[in-house]
Amino acid sequence: MADICLEARDLCKTYIVDGYSNNVLQNINLKIEEGEFVSIMGPSGSGKSTLLYTISGMDDMTAGKVIFDGDDISKMNDKQLTKLRLIKMGFIFQQMYMMKKLCIMDNIVLPGYQAEIMSREEVNKKAEDLMRRLGIIETADREITEVSGGQLQRACLARALINSPKVLFADEPTGALNSKASMEVLNEMVKANESGTTVLMVTHSEKVAASSDRIIYLMDGDIQGELVLGKINATDGSDRISDAEKLSLRERKLRKWLEEMGW
Questions:
Q1: How far apart are CA 26 and CA 42, in angstroms?
Q2: Contact call for residues 181 and 150 (beta carbons, < 8 A)
Q3: Reduced to 3 states, what is the DSSP secondary structure of residue 198?
Q4: Could you tell me the residue range of the domain that residue 28 belongs to?
Q5: Range with the lowest mean pLDDT among 75-79, 153-157, 240-244?
Q6: Fewest C-beta atoms under 10 Å: which of 164, 171, 181, 242?
Q7: pLDDT 10s digits, 149-193
Q8: 94 vs 249: CA distance, rounded Å
Q9: How far from 97 is each of 91, 122, 145, 159, 211, CA to CA, in Å?
Q10: Which CATH number fits the domain that encloses residue 155?
Q11: Total domains in the fold of the chain
Q12: Do residues 103 and 142 lie in contact, with contact meaning Cβ atoms separated by under 8 Å?
């Protein structure tokens, strides 16, 4: 069994609105193993994004604890959390947040410079290597308004990976992309996972979630069930069929399960 790199224990998140309590997360217990690719699905308002933000320390928890790489993040102060997110976590979102005054390359290298775990020369080389791997090296000097949505999201992925994070958190990373660009970004996330990066992703897309190892179904702030699909590129005999057929089979299995869950 692989080591646990991320764990939520009785995690709760409550918002107080106009004097009323809104329990967005209710006693969530969740373990993510090193090297897993896990998708979180569920209807709108089920608490998916809140779970992602709370478990990564981007949002405060109301109760419970989160253990990340052996450390209890609920006991960390803001400075410690900021350092942890910079060095050990990577983030990509549906909205492609980048600094407008910086070119693509400068946006990608910035967290590498801030982390100070590599020299600037090493950061620059890694950024170039990532951009070549992601097929966007030609955009290095362009402004963020001069590239396509798919190219920009791949640049966001490169930025998220620049410090070799332990876990990549993704909130609807393909939600604003067309189908072709979505699959390109997803394929690169799968490759990052195969290289050892753990991935925790929120998605509404069955096609996107079908590439993950495990799917967790959330409803009303509570985990209702999970489906284990295993590694999409596992050498278990399924490699005898084409990638398209494999993905189609996984997607059909996922769709049937989601229907059983009330999707």
A1: 15
A2: yes
A3: strand
A4: 4-261
A5: 240-244
A6: 242
A7: 999 999 999 999 999 999 999 999 999 899 999 999 999 999 999
A8: 27
A9: 10, 24, 12, 11, 25
A10: 3.40.50.300
A11: 1
A12: yes
